């Protein structure tokens, strides 16, 4: 664990009013406790079982975000533990989240994950699919979800121009969607973008939530 890197990240963030999510996947209880003692309260996990287990270990005191892909049959288990689900990539997944949130009488905060990378392996909705998704009647009927914004992962490349253009594309889509679907909703306000290798570019391009793992825990 590297407190200097942690402080450097916070310093870089401060002019932007963005928040840091420390990605604690594969990290131990003690490692997370150490980072918590530095003052960090928000953690991200990419697997449901791990998120649930860690939430229990840490006595429910931390804010957990799910950043990895979510299977429908796991939704039940994470509501209402999870503060924000970053990885909604289908209408049917959102319907399941809505259904489980209704049972718990909560409104679940979600981000729509957008495929901005050129890599086949990266998941998410295509920019062209999002509007169809938001125009769907089924979407309008869901009362127990709150769409807080968009999430995207840039291509894993050394080419910073390409990374910048992908984050820019996410920001443009965000502005577009906000204007067309959420103009009266100040809660549609988040762009989750940027990881250890590319977060300075993401901040420049309008990210409000950055997700950092290896830089803080060491690879
Ligand atoms: C692992 C992971 C991160 C953090 O990546 P680092 O390069 O370790 O900072 C961020 N977002 C998602 C979705 C991840 O799976």
How does the overall form come out from the CA principal axes? globular
CATH architecture call:
Alpha-Beta Barrel
Residue windows where pLDDT falls under 50 for at least 5 positions: none
Give me the strand/helix succession. HEHEHEHEHEHHEHEHEH
CATH topology: TIM Barrel
Question: Which ligands, by name, code or SMILES, are bound?
Answer: pyridoxal-5'-phosphate
Highest-level CATH class = Alpha Beta
Task: Walk me through what this model shows.
The mean pLDDT is 95. The protein has an eight-stranded parallel beta sheet. With 219 residues, the chain is α/β, with parallel strands linked by helices. It has helices at 3-13, 29-37, 48-57, 75-78, 91-103, 127-135, 137-140, 160-181, 199-204, 214-217, and strands at 19-23, 42-45, 63-66, 84-88, 108-114, 145-152, 190-192, 209-212. Helix 6 runs parallel beside helix 8. 37% of the residues are buried. The chain has ten helices and eight strands. The protein has a single domain (3-217), classed as Alpha-Beta Barrel (TIM Barrel). The site of pyridoxal-5'-phosphate has 14 residues, from strand 8 and helix 10.
């Amino acid at each position: 664990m590297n407190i200097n890197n942690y402080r450097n990240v916070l310093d870089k963030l401060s002019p932007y009013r963005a928040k840091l999510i420390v990605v604690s996947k594969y990290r131990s209880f003690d490692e997370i406790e150490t980072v918590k003692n530095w003052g960090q309260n928000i953690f991200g996990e990419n697997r449901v079982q791990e998120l649930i287990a860690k939430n229990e270990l840490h006595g429910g005191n931390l804010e957990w975000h799910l950043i990895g892909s979510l299977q429908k049959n796991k939704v039940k288990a994470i509501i209402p533990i999870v503060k924000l689900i970053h990885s909604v990539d289908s209408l049917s997944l959102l319907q399941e989240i809505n259904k489980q949130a209704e049972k718990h009488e909560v409104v679940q905060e979600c981000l729509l994950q957008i495929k901005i990378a050129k890599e086949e392996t990266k998941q998410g909705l295509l920019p062209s699919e999002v509007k169809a998704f938001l125009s769907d009647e089924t979407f309008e009927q869901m009362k127990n979800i709150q769409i807080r914004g968009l999430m995207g992962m840039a291509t894993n490349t050394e080419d910073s121009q390409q990374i910048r253009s992908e984050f820019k594309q996410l920001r443009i889509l965000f502005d577009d969607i906000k204007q067309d679907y959420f103009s009266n909703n100040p809660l549609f306000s988040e762009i989750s973008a940027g990881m250890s290798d590319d977060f300075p570019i993401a901040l420049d391009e309008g990210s409000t939530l950055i997700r950092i793992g290896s830089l803080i825990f060491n690879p």
